[in-house]
User: Which sequence fits this backbone?
């Protein structure tokens, strides 16, 4: 194994030397020459994201920090960078990481105002950066629920990436165990659905107050979701 | 026509030894689309807009072709030369079938380039434009030189099968890194490309999304330039990448950069063997 690898490397080096100049290389941000054929696909992808000047990594982002911090993966993002469903071991690690970082709000989970929740559920504004930046000073970021879920049965435009949530509250009620569960899912759905594509809304995205409004929209008996 | 077929025979045989022969005949973009619709009568993505299917013969992107052709052959820029000396991979000035064989490795620059990168490279190196000239700095919109040229040049590959080369180790490396990037989760909402393109027939709000593993959906998905009816402008592959990353809440992407190239290498490889619709019309 070791010898074979060395041999391959030697062949590549001599082949590249035979080509004119620095054909095998391109330069990264720090002007070091990098031979991309000597990297694994994963190494090259990391290199391209963080060291090739492809992204505006120095740009400030709405949650604080810069684009670079956004593009550096945390544990759950790294574990879930896969096609299809995670294997059992990965799923276990993801659930454990999600549970370890979850915090229930002080004073317990409460429902807010379902009317405000309805606005948040429809709004896809917020956290976009690059050629055009969302300004949270003029408009609050939304929860974008309808991008992926049906909620109010009367709303005709809704996404289908996530399950339908129509009548979600009518079927479940609003006792403490339901409130706690729904809060856990919105805050960090990987606690129950490892490697789900649903965002972690409790991770620098929505405030606890905003989450309480979205929960009211989902669960309150008067909300159109439950009519 | 018959004579052409006879001539093509030895070529097809020669190619057949090395691998499968890719479709090497131009087809009208609407004909390509119609065949895909017939092949996949149940694809919600391909059939989502009756209006756009009906409009396809009058695709507004076709109006950019004449301007694009004129821009390509006109002597322009500080060096007052045409783009006929630009090599998109099949030789100087050879456009037929070139677009579907990109990205690829170019000896003269020693790296893999995607189409837009190569076009801009030629406009700078051959015609002498600089970053400050609107001819190269303005990348988007039907009124931009870049989109007019892109539409004209891509149209010369309509109906050809996607067939980017992967013989050079850097081509393979960029394609493989593109695959990792496609599944790499990140940003403020933890999305990767597969969040939207991993399942068939799913919607974001009213938009039906193409599935990457369905190559007949995917060839339409990556068939840019396309007129986007909702934006009333012709858009590029690079514009699609920028828009996706923006909506995904990743960091902003910059033009002419290798993340674009790697992703486009993977996109086009995922559509390999399917004919390209150039230009397409999208919602």
Assistant:
């Amino acid at each position: 194994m070791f010898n074979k690898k060395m041999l391959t490397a030697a062949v590549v080096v001599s082949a590249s030397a035979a080509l004119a100049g620095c054909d095998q290389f391109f330069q990264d941000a720090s002007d070091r020459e990098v031979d991309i054929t000597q990297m694994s696909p994963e190494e090259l992808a990391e290199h391209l994201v963080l060291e090739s000047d492809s992204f505006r990594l120095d740009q400030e982002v709405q949650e604080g920090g810069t684009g670079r911090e956004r593009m550096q993966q945390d544990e759950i993002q790294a574990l879930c960078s896969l096609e299809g469903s995670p294997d059992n071991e990965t799923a276990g690690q993801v659930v454990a990481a999600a549970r370890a970082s979850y915090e229930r709000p002080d004073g317990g989970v409460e429902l807010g105002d379902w009317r405000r929740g309805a606005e948040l559920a429809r709004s896809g504004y917020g956290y976009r950066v690059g050629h055009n930046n969302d300004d949270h000073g003029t408009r609050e970021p939304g929860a974008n629920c309808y991008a992926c879920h049906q909620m109010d049965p009367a709303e005709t435009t809704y996404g289908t990436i996530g399950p339908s949530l129509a009548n979600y509250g009518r079927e479940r009620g609003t006792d403490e165990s339901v409130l706690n569960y729904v809060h856990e899912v919105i805050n960090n759905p990987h606690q129950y659905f490892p490697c789900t594509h649903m965002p972690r809304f409790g991770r620098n995205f929505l405030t606890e107050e905003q989450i309480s409004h979205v929960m009211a929209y989902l669960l309150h008996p008067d909300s159109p979701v439950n009519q | 026509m018959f004579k052409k077929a006879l001539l093509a025979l030895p070529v097809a045989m020669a190619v057949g030894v090395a691998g499968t022969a890719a479709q090497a005949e131009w087809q009208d973009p609407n004909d390509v689309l119609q065949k895909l619709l017939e092949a996949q009568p149940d694809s919600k993505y391909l059939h989502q807009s009756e209006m756009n299917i009906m409009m396809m013969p009058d695709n507004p992107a076709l109006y950019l072709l004449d301007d694009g052709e004129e821009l390509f052959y006109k002597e322009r820029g500080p060096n007052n030369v045409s783009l006929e000396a630009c090599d998109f991979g099949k030789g100087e000035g050879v456009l037929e079938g070139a677009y579907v064989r990109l990205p690829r490795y170019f000896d003269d620059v020693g790296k893999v380039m995607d189409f837009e990168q190569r076009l801009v490279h030629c406009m700078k190196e051959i015609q002498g434009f600089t970053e400050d000239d609107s001819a190269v700095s303005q990348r988007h919109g039907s009124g931009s030189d870049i989109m007019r040229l892109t539409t004209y040049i891509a149209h010369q590959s309509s109906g050809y099968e996607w067939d980017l080369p992967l013989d050079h180790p850097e081509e393979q490396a960029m394609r493989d890194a593109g695959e990792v990037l496609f599944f790499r989760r990140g940003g403020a909402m933890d999305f990767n490309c597969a969040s939207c393109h991993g399942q068939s027939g799913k919607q974001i709000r009213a938009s039906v999304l193409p599935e990457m593993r369905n190559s007949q959906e995917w060839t339409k998905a990556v068939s840019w330039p396309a007129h986007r009816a909702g934006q009333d402008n012709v858009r590029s592959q690079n514009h699609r990448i920028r828009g996706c990353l923006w909506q995904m809440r990743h960091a902003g992407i910059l033009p002419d950069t290798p993340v674009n190239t790697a992703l486009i290498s993977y996109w086009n490889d995922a559509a390999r063997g399917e004919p390209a619709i150039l230009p397409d019309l999208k919602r």
